[in-house]
Amino acid sequence: MKTVQIKDKTFAVSISEEEIQERVKAVAEQINRDMEGKNPLFLGVLNGAFMFASDLMKNITIPCEISFVKLASYQGVTSTGTVKEVMGINEDLSGRHVIIVEDIVDTGRTMKQMIESLGTRKPASVSICSLFVKPEKLLEPIDIAYKCFSIPNDFIVGYGLDYDQQGRNLKEIYTLVSE
Length: 179
Hints:
6-stranded mixed sheet, alpha/beta, 179 residues, 10 strands
């Protein structure tokens, strides 16, 4: 089993690059069907979703646009429970079909807050597209229209996700194996 050391923690490969790409492509195909003729605005959540957003966009074949928002809710390996908007949205969302592109949904609080905030800007629809969802950790009743993986409540890094800003560049997903 391939492992990596990031600072004081050891992580082991849990999802291969090939499996990630297969799932991203399948979700993109679903979005292409669902959003045909609608010119959606993809809204990538930085920093974690940058790799996912990039690969997702490579597989989107319908007319669309992309923008980014930067939110912060993690410190080290723990969610702080508060969401802070660091970089906002400049686009006019009136009448637009918005697809939030997120790396991971665990409690759902960030997505709930983001959907409420976007709703004040009168979009035609708001959907969530997440690379990972942790169903057992969800505290908010949110609809995740597009998801690549449901995973257990483990701490993961790679493919854009980090541990204390490290490990985002890894092509696979690694799960924490030791503290």
